[in-house]
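[09:14] KT: can someone run the structure on this one? pasting the chain below
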Amino acid sequence: MLAKAADIKVTGMTPTEVKEVIVKLIKAGKMKSGGVGLYKSFTHYDVRGRNARWYGTGMKDDHS
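[09:31] RB: done, structure tokens below
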């Protein structure tokens, strides 16, 4: 309702690839610090102001 989060799917990219791009953009200062959650069919991103990371049910921790 506040437009501070999104569940993202990009045609031609896996959720892991989307996560890697988001993390790279956060580190480069081109996206706000936020939460990035990896799920089987999408990547979650939110602008909570801190770099939280998590994995949805059934996702293997890739230590990124």
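[09:33] KT: thanks! The chain has one helix and four strands.
[09:34] RB: yep, looked fine to me
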